[in-house]
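Posting for a labmate who doesn't have an account.
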Amino acid sequence: MAGVSVGTGAMNSLLGKLTALLSDEYNLLKRVRKEIQFLERELSGMRVLLERLADMEERLDIMAKGWRDRVRDLSYDIEDCIDRFMDRLGSGDAKPKFMKRTARRLKTLWVRHDIATQIKELKARVMEESERRDRYTLDESYYSATKPVQIDPRIIAIHEEVKGLVAMEGPMKHVTALLMDESKDLKVVSIVGSGGLGKTTLAMEVYRKIGSGGDFQCQACVSVSRTLDLVKLLKDILSQIDKDVYEKCQSWEKEQLIREIKQILTGKRYFIVIDDVWKEQDWKLVKAAFPENNNGSRIIATTRITGVANQCCSNSVSQPYQMEPLDDVDSRRLFFKRIFRMDDPCPVELEEISTKILQKCGGLPLAIITFASLLANKTHKKEEWERLQESIGTGPSFDSDGNLKGMKDILLLSYWDLPHHLKTCLLYLCIYPEDSMIKIKLLKWKWIAEGFIATQWGSLDQVAENCFNELVNRNMIQPVYGNHDSSVKYCRVHDMVLDLVISLSDEENFATVLNGRVCNSFPNKIRRLSMQSSGKENKGAVGAITETKIHVRSLTVFGLHYNNQIPCLVGFHALRVLDLAGCDWLENKHVKHIGSSRQLRYLRIDSFHITELPGEIGKLQHLETLDLTGCSSLPRLPSTVMQLRKLVRLFVSDDTQLAAAGFRSLQALEVLRFWETDDPVRFAEEVNELGKHNLRCLHIDGNMAKRVFCNNPCCTYTCLQVLKIQPAVGMVPRGMASLKNVVKLDMAVMEFDKEGLQVLMGMPSLAHLQLWVTRNIKEKLTIGSDVFKLLKFFHFKYLSYFRSFLEEERTSCLVWLTFAPGAVPALRRFRLELNPMMVASDFFAGLGVEHLSVLAHLEVAINCYSAAPGRVEALESSVGEAIKLHPNRKIHVSRVLENYMLKSDKEWEESVSKKRKELEELKSHCGSSHEERRPEEEEE
């Protein structure tokens, strides 16, 4: 169970700390111990009710919401109090001298009496809420609450004929083709996509088209509720396939209903649509009613969740049909078709505002239709449209006419279906500005720092990864895939989802967002703060923040342009996350008091003006992530950084020097990125020592890589999984052969030969390899069949340039790489980035791509920088011929830096001749100088 969540506040984290406080480690006053025992018992009971209320938040009344909000707020306040108490008792030197010991005893005595006073006040608040719970009879009211029966908005789409569909013809043909093949086996086609994309509409149109042909003897179409009522669902199916039997089934249980449906469908060809399946288990229960009778029966299942869609497919080979948003052209067609008559064009004065509205709708048909329906009943005046467009994003305004309620209800349905910890992770996205490209690893580290991630399901990183993937699978987050390796490093939140998240966050007082909208008042207690705007509407924000900063747990700043808009960091005692990456004007004075935020777990600073960090940073004993990548003017870190025993991730800029002395003391360190050090030899020893502990990811430059892996060929990095070496190292360090657990390697080398290839082939766990060679390869390299058995992605960048061409043109090998039969058996994606002047135009014929048995994607990027057009075209032609030999593989050819390509082949020849002459003159000059010095040297 996560320590902090939107439903229960800090209650879970707090109860754990109360238990720790009652241990013998803390010498509490007797009366304080009794008070804390009382708090632990009373709050444990409140937690149970909070969790129950969180499960039914969409139907809580005002009294229940008020009680929940007060208790949740109380949990934060008590935890903040306990944190300060534990820190103050735990501070001090490891071996204090007499005067310090005496002062510390007096201090802790005062602290114990001080905590007694605070605990007494907090106990009174707990007792008040306990009594209020009894008066409201909340335990009885919400123990077995019955959800009011309402019309499911999806029923309208199921039973209402949709006319004039836009961009549905292609999807209909695709799904119809998947369904209507010649197979006699039962076939299930799943349609997956976020709410509002038109899954139900597509399924129903296919259902009507196919079902009307008379090819099926039984047909039914039903919707699955968020909480599956299997008996009701089965009765709905029965009512459509046999009305006579349905009239007798009112008292039947699910087992009898399943038997009856199976009996009716056995021997018949049936067609069923199961709309909006939420869970894999639900699908298994529903599917049990459908016999596999080999009569060509068909089922369509729609869902918002990728995992469910895969489960629904007929077999492991089948793929779900992924619904895509409408493109710009179809969005405009659908939008204007609803507002104007078919032949009426959009007035010119409404074109710009229409574009803004459609950007907000993001290609979602339901959003487009709903907004268009709102505008259809308004005057077609630009001012009116602008007013409505600007109101989007303020939840209540969005609902004021009721016309957009359908979209919000569908999004809310997805939100309410999330587990508590996923709701919390999703709401946290409200801190990011609209249309942000969110770096996933930073987001996950913030989730961890906030206490949203629980450890009982695995490591924190793995659980955070699972949470992110689950939100993607539920279509609440949009992943942004990499261009070359299909990796997901960034994500986005659709504007309409972000609007909902901000609205929910405001209701829950989860986070306060200053994003340029007018804010007339602030919450009494700000728990999380996101500052996104430098506008005048933020006037007074700093003052309001200063009054409540003792409660702030997270402060994230995006793009503030004035240094008077960030509050002084003194007094932010509860702060867990401080992200100042959006303050490029930040100066030393702004971070002077950073050490006062003792609860800090995540610290990110990005400013050219930072030249020094305070020594007090060593007091941040809970700090896990320290990201100073953007502080390029910071010459060194304070020595007190070595006191950060819980530091897990450390990133510094290329120009920041790390001190070697004592670095091995950071034994919790898992991720390290640096280039410079004051003592390279000693630092290599320190890093090698860390490699024996928890180091999982290492990014260093070529010089340090040489010291780490060449001077210590037997080094063991038992946990290292990711290694990045850039700028380039001279050659592949031979000591890297001992890296048996590295999964991802990204490195640049100057020289690459057979021995270097042997080192890489000796790394058995490699799954992802990016290799950049900067000089000519002088020998043919063959990748055999018994190596790289787990490699799935290979990016080979061979970009030797002018000077190396001139120096080595006689000895360079233009056919430089080949795959032997059976090589790299797991390789799925292979990207080549080439200089066409360095490879033979027919190199592809000898590459051995045909031996890569499971290769799905091959990308050839031709680097045109200073290249002759004829050589570029010849290389493209060579790859084109190869494509014909591999019709079942995706092969893509592209040009890189085409603007820098030479205008003609003659220009290349002239450039080569000129450069060769300059090189010969340089050699001649060096030789002459050597001859002139020789007599002098002999005389000496």
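Reply:
Got it, the structure tokens are right above this. The chain has 30 helices and 28 strands.
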